[in-house]
Design brief:
The structure holds two protein chains of two kinds.
Chain A: E1 2-3, E2 9-10, E3 19-22, E4 28-33, E5 39-46, H1 60-67, H2 77-86, E6 90-95, E7 100-107, H3 111-123, H4 129-145, H5 150-163, H6 176-181, H7 184-194, E8 201-206, H8 210-221, E9 245-250, E10 256-264, H9 273-284, H10 290-297, E11 305-311, E12 316-325, H11 329-346, H12 350-363, H13 371-383, H14 394-399, H15 403-413, E13 420-425, H16 427-434, E14 439-444
Parallel strand pairs in A: 4-8, 9-13, 9-14
Antiparallel strand pairs in A: 1-2, 3-4, 5-7, 5-8, 6-7, 10-12, 10-13, 11-12
Helix pairs in contact in A: 1-7, 9-12, 9-15, 10-11, 11-15
Chain B: H1 7-12, E1 14-17, E2 23-28, E3 34-41, H2 55-62, H3 74-81, E4 84-90, E5 95-102, H4 106-119, H5 124-143, H6 146-158, H7 172-177, H8 180-190, E6 196-202, H9 206-217, E7 241-248, E8 253-259, H10 267-279, H11 285-293, E9 299-304, E10 312-318, H12 325-342, H13 346-363, H14 367-381, H15 384-388, H16 390-395, H17 399-409, E11 415-423
Parallel strand pairs in B: 2-6, 7-11
Antiparallel strand pairs in B: 1-2, 3-5, 3-6, 4-5, 8-10, 8-11, 9-10
Helix pairs in contact in B: 2-5, 4-9, 10-13, 10-17, 11-12, 12-17
C-alpha cells in the first residue's frame, strides 16, 4: 500500500500481464490469461466506423456490422446463430464513430469453435441480398420507432445541432433516406476497404492458454489479407453548428421536456483529460455534483441531471443532459447554465475536487473486473493511441490534479455563448418561454428520422 | 447440487445472524480492491395498500436524505468522498440498496448504512422536495414512455385484488398524498434489522468486517412486531382480458401476460427454460420466426420475472409503423400453440439450459454481480444455495415438462392483452 498526494491509500492497480504479437498481415494480437471463472472474451477492433460513411450513405458502417452474423463463409444466419446460441456464447458486431468491432464472450470449453465463428463473420461475411434487404427494413423501423422515445430523439437531434455537416454529424444508425438507398455493393465495399487485419487489434482475455491461443490465432487470422487506404483526415471542428441557438423538436403530447446543452469538448486522450475528468465530476459527474444538487436535490426539478465529455478520436462534445416538466424548463435552464458559467469562471473548490478525485479513483478498479472490460480498456488504448500506462497510472494522474489545473481546464474548455440548446417537447408551449436563450427553431419530430 | 465451477464461491460465503435479527452474508474475494455492499429489505409495493401506492419507492428515495449522524446530503457526500457510489431500487417484492467502493472505505459504509437503518430522519422539507423528484421520475418512466404506460395498464388487467395490481412507482395522486406519518410508520414496520439481509462481496477481511458489523448494527433494536403478511386474495381468472391504450406513436405495440406461479413453485424453473427457448438469442423460436422470418414485429421480448406471489409471464412485441397488431398477435399465438401441441426439441431444451448456465456464470463475474445475485436468490427462492444450484436444477427439466407447463399456463383464459393504438393527432394543450 502507498499513500498518494491526497492522503488516499491506493493498492497498485495494473492491467494483467499480456502477450503481444503482430501477425504478418499487420494484425496485432494481445492475449491475457485470467480466471477464475471458465469464460473467455475476444474483441476485434479496427479504426473504421461512421466517420467513414460516404456522404450519401449515412449508416453504412452500422449496416455492415448488423449484417456480419447474417451469413458468412457459406453458412446461413440460422446456422451461425444456432452454433453460437447453443453453447451459451454471445457474439456481436458494432460500429462506433471511430471504430468497428466484433466481440465474443464464451464458456471456456467452447472457445475454439466460437473463435472460429468470430473469425468467419469478421473475414468472410456473405451479405446475402435477402439479408441486406431484411436488415434495411429492420433498421428503418427502428429509426421510425425511435421517434417515440424522447430521450433518444434528444440525443439524435443534438448530434446534428452540434456537428452539422461534419463526419461526426450523424448517428451511426444513419438516416432514413440513406439507409433506404443502400445497396449490397456498398456494404461489400465498406467491409473490403475498412474491416481488415492491417492496423487492427485482436484481444483474447480469459481462461485459455496463451500459447495455444496464439497458435489458433495464426491458423484463423494468419491468412486474412487486407489493408486500409491511408486514413482520411477529418475536417476541423471548432464549435456547434447551431451555436447560440435553441432547437425544439416538437412532440406535442409530452408533459416533460428532454433538455440537452451541447458545446465543444475535447478529443479522447487530450492532454487535459485528467483535470477535465475531475472537474466534470464536480460539475455533473456524480450524485453530489453541482448540477444534480442544484437541479434535483435542492429544487426537485428533475430526477436526473448530469454533464459529460463525449470524446471521440479527433473531436468531442461537452454535454449537459437533463429533463423537467414543461412549466419549469426555463428555471432548469437558468440553473444549469449558471452552474456551467460559475465553474468556468472559478473552477471547483478544493474540498469538492478532493472528493471527486477519491470518487473517481475508488471506483476505477471496478472498471477492470471482467474479461470484457479488460479487453475493452486495452482496445480503447490502442484505438485512441493512449499511453501504455494509461490504466496503471490512471489513479495517480487523477490524484495529481490540483485546484488550479482543474480551474484552468474549466476556463479553457467549458462553453460561454457557443453552446447549443436542444429541447424535445411541446413546441407551442416551449417556444415563447425560451426565446431569450437564442434564435429558436422548431423542427417536427418526423424530420429527424 | 452446486456445480464444480461455482464451488469456490459457495465455499467462500460466511453466514451469520445478529441477535436483533439482521442476517449477514460475507463473500470475500481479492480479485479487485473494491467492495459491493447490498442491503435487501423484505418490503416492496406488494406491502402497500390503495391510498399509499408508491410509498415503498418514495421511501427508498427518502433513505438518502439524512439520518441522525449523517444529516441531509451527508450520505452521498461522505460515500463519494470515500471513493464510493450508491444506488437503490424498489420492486414489487423488495427494496434494495447498494454501494460500490474502494476496500478502505468499508467501515465508513457500515457506519453510513447502520446510521440510516437506526435513525432515519423524515423531515417535511426533504419529503416535499423528494416527492417532486419522484413525480418527475414517474413522468419520465410512465407518462412519457410507451412501455411504462402499457405495463401499468397490463398490471391492472392481470391482477384484480393483489397489490401487484398497481405500479411500483405508484399512482400520481397517491404519490402526491403520502404523508410524513405514513413514511414514519412504514420505516418502523419494514426497516427493522430483522427485516433485512446484508450481502457484502469483494476484497476485505471477513473477521474484521463481522466485528465492525456487530459494532455498528448490534445496538439497533428489532422491530416491535413482524410485518403483516400480505394476503393474496386474487380471484380466479375466467377468460381473456383486453385493453387498449391510445397515444400518439409511430407504431402499435403489444404486451401480453399470462398468469404464472410464484418464484418458489417448481414450475418457475420450467418457465425459465421456456422463456429462454422462446426468446433468448437470434436462433430462439420467437425471435427467429416472428422477428426474422415472418417479420411480424421489429423486436420481441419475453419476461418471466420471479415474484414472491404468483407473477406473470409477459411477451412484448414492437411492430412496424402501419402493421396490424391483430396479425402479430395471431402469429405469436400460432407459435405458442406449436409449443403446447408438439413441445420443444431436445436441442432447444439443451440450448436453453446452456444459456441459463452461462448467464449465471456471467452475473457472478463481478463483486456487484455476486452480491446482488446471491441476495436476489435468497429473497425469492429462500436461499442463495438454491441459486448457485440452479444449473443442476435446470438439468432436471425435460422437454415433456416444458410442454406440459406451457399448456397449463399459456392458455387463452389466463391471458391479458394490452394494445397500444397509435393516434395521429394530439390535442394542443396537454
Amino acid at each position: 500500500m502507498k499513500k498518494n498526494g491526497s492522503g488516499l491509500s491506493l493498492r497498485p492497480l495494473k492491467l494483467p500481464p499480456r502477450e503481444v504479437t503482430t501477425l504478418g498481415n499487420g494484425l496485432t494480437v494481445t492475449v491475457v490469461k485470467r480466471g477464475p471463472l471458465p469464460l473467455v472474451a475476444v474483441r476485434y477492433i479496427t479504426k473504421a466506423g461512421s466517420v467513414f460513411d460516404p456522404k450519401d450513405r449515412f449508416g453504412l458502417a452500422e449496416l455492415c456490422a448488423r449484417l456480419l452474423r447474417r451469413g458468412a463463409g457459406g453458412q446461413s444466419a440460422e446456422a451461425l446463430n444456432e452454433s453460437v446460441d447453443y453453447v451459451g456464447a454471445s457474439l456481436a458486431a458494432w460500429a462506433g464513430e471511430d471504430s468497428f468491432g466484433v466481440g465474443l464472450t464464451t464458456p471456456g470449453a467452447h472457445f475454439e469453435p466460437m473463435f472460429e465463428v468470430l473469425a468467419r463473420i469478421a473475414q468472410q461475411p456473405d451479405f446475402p441480398e435477402a439479408e441486406v434487404a431484411l436488415t434495411q427494413r429492420r433498421t428503418l423501423a427502428q429509426l421510425s420507432n425511435g421517434l417515440d422515445d424522447p430521450d433518444d430523439v434528444a440525443d439524435r437531434a443534438l448530434v446534428t445541432a452540434m456537428f452539422g455537416d461534419h463526419p461526426y454529424g450523424h448517428e451511426t444508425i444513419g438516416t432514413r433516406a440513406h439507409v433506404e438507398a443502400m445497396k449490397r455493393e456498398d456494404v461489400v465495399a465498406y467491409h473490403r476497404e475498412r474491416v481488415v487485419p492491417h492496423g487492427a487489434q485482436l484481444f483474447v482475455v480469459g481462461d485459455a492458454e496463451p500459447a495455444k491461443v496464439l497458435k489458433t490465432v495464426e491458423r484463423l487470422f494468419g491468412g486474412w489479407k487486407g489493408h486500409t487506404e491511408a486514413q482520411v483526415s477529418l475536417p476541423e471542428w471548432s464549435k456547434p453548428a447551431r451555436a447560440g441557438e435553441v432547437v425544439i423538436i416538437d412532440k406535442p403530447e409530452q408533459t416533460q421536456v428532454q433538455v440537452r446543452i451541447g458545446a465543444r469538448g475535447v478529443y479522447r486522450g487530450h492532454p487535459d483529460h485528467f483535470p477535465l475528468t475531475a472537474m466534470n465530476c464536480v460539475l455533473g459527474g456524480s450524485f453530489t455534483s453541482r448540477l444534480m444538487q442544484e437541479i434535483r436535490v435542492k429544487r426537485g426539478l428533475t430526477y436526473g441531471a448530469g454533464s459529460h465529455f463525449d470524446q471521440m478520436a479527433t473531436a468531442g462534445g461537452f454535454i449537459v443532459s437533463t429533463f423537467t416538466k414543461t412549466e419549469t424548463v426555463t428555471e432548469l435552464l437558468d440553473v444549469a447554465l449558471a452552474e456551467v458559467a460559475k465553474m468556468k469562471a472559478k473552477g471547483p473548490k478544493a474540498p469538492e475536487l478532493e472528493s471527486a478525485k477519491r470518487y473517481i479513483s475508488g471506483l476505477y478498479p471496478a472498471r477492470l473486473e471482467t474479461n470484457e472490460s479488460i479487453a475493452a480498456a486495452m482496445a480503447d488504448m490502442a484505438l485512441f493511441g493512449l499511453p501504455d500506462d494509461w490504466v496503471d497510472q490512471y489513479r495517480e494522474r487523477i490524484a495529481a490534479v490540483t485546484p488550479q489545473l482543474a480551474a484552468e481546464a474549466a476556463a479553457k474548455h467549458l462553453p460561454d455563448r457557443d453552446r447549443t440548446i436542444v429541447l424535445v417537447g411541446n413546441a407551442a408551449q416551449l417556444a415563447p418561454q425560451v426565446e431569450r436563450y437564442g434564435r429558436v427553431s422548431v423542427i417536427p419530430v418526423a424530420a429527424i428520422e | 447440487m452446486i456445480p464444480r465451477e461455482l464451488k469456490p464461491i459457495a465455499d467462500s460465503v460466511i453466514e451469520s445472524k445478529l441477535p436483533n435479527g439482521l442476517k449477514v452474508r460475507l463473500v470475500p474475494s481479492s480479485a479487485v480492491p473494491t467492495i459491493s455492499y447490498y442491503t435487501f429489505f423484505n418490503v416492496g409495493s406488494r406491502n402497500e395498500r390503495p391510498g399509499i401506492t408508491g410509498i415503498s419507492h418514495l421511501f427508498e428515495h427518502m433513505m438518502f436524505n439524512g439520518a441522525k449522524k449523517y444529516g441531509p446530503g451527508a450520505f452521498d457526500r461522505t460515500l463519494e468522498s470515500n471513493g464510493g457510489s450508491s444506488n437503490a431500487y424498489t420492486s414489487n417484492d423488495m427494496t434494495v440498496y447498494y454501494e460500490d467502493f474502494m476496500s478502505e472505505a468499508l467501515e465508513k459504509v457500515i457506519d453510513l448504512e447502520s446510521d440510516r437503518m437506526r435513525s432515519l430522519a423524515v423531515t417535511p422539507k426533504m419529503l416535499k422536495s423528494e416527492r417532486e423528484v419522484v413525480i418527475e421520475e414517474r413522468r419520465l418512466r410512465v407518462d412519457n414512455e410507451i412501455a411504462g404506460m402499457l405495463d401499468e395498464e397490463l398490471g391492472t388487467l392481470v391482477w384484480k385484488a393483489h397489490p401487484y395490481r398497481w405500479p411500483v412507482i405508484g399512482w400520481m395522486r397517491d404519490i402526491e398524498a403520502i404523508t410524513r406519518e405514513d413514511c414514519l410508520d412504514y420505516f418502523r414496520t419494514y426497516y427493522a434489522p430483522n427485516n433485512a439481509t446484508l450481502y457484502i462481496a469483494g476484497d476485505f477481511d471477513p473477521k474484521e468486517a463481522m466485528k465492525l458489523i456487530k459494532k455498528y448494527y448490534g445496538g439497533i433494536k428489532p422491530g416491535p412486531k413482524a410485518p403483516p403478511e400480505v394476503l393474496d386474495a386474487e380471484p380466479e381468472q375466467r377468460g381473456e382480458r383486453r385493453a387498449e391504450v391510445q397515444h400518439p406513436a409511430q407504431a402499435p405495440t403489444l404486451m401480453i401476460a399470462w398468469r404464472g406461479p410464484a418464484a418458489r413453485d417448481a414450475d418457475t424453473l420450467v418457465l425459465d427454460v421456456l422463456q429462454y427457448a422462446l426468446s433468448v438469442g437470434q436462433s430462439s423460436r420467437l425471435i427467429k420466426s416472428l422477428v426474422y422470418e415472418k417479420e411480424a414485429c421489429v423486436s420481441l421480448s419475453v419476461d418471466w420475472s420471479w415474484r414472491k406471489d404468483p407473477g406473470a409471464f409477459v411477451a412484448a412485441m414492437e411492430l412496424k409503423p402501419g402493421a396490424d397488431p391483430k396479425q402479430a398477435e395471431a402469429a405469436l399465438y400460432a407459435e405458442l400453440e406449436a409449443v403446447m401441441s408438439s413441445g420443444i426439441t431436445e436441442r432447444e431444451l439443451q440450448k436453453a439450459k446452456n444459456n441459463l448456465a452461462a448467464q449465471l456464470l456471467r452475473e457472478l463475474g463481478t463483486n456487484n454481480g455476486r452480491a446482488h445475485a446471491l441476495g436476489h436468490y435468497e429473497s425469492l427462492l429462500g436461499s442463495w444455495r438454491d441459486g448457485l444450484a440452479l444449473a443442476s436444477r435446470y438439468e432436471q427439466v425435460t422437454a415433456a415438462h416444458v410442454k406440459e407447463v406451457a399448456t397449463r399456463y399459456l392458455k387463452p383464459s389466463r391471458r391479458s392483452v394490452v394494445t397500444l393504438v397509435p393516434t395521429a393527432e394530439v390535442e394542443a394543450a396537454a
